[in-house]
From TrEMBL:
Taxonomic lineage of the native organism: Bacteria, Pseudomonadati, Pseudomonadota, Alphaproteobacteria, Hyphomicrobiales
Keywords: Membrane, Transmembrane, Transmembrane helix
Species, as recorded: Phyllobacterium pellucidum
Transmembrane feature ranges: 12-31, 37-58
Keyword Membrane in record: yes
Name the UniProt record assigns to this protein: Uncharacterized protein
Amino acid sequence: MILHYWIRQSHRWLGILLTLTILANFVSMTFGPAPLAIVYAPLVPLALLVFSGLYMFFQR
């Protein structure tokens, strides 16, 4: 049960992190072409969100 709690908590924090990286992406685009590190930054939390979301989906 404690693993389920930690995965759910990390899923929430990853959602916040994804939102922040997307906002950083849009802000950096207002100043010109964005560096590739900022453009591809949302992919890491997005991939982790997919795996944690699928885990929680199949637990119920």
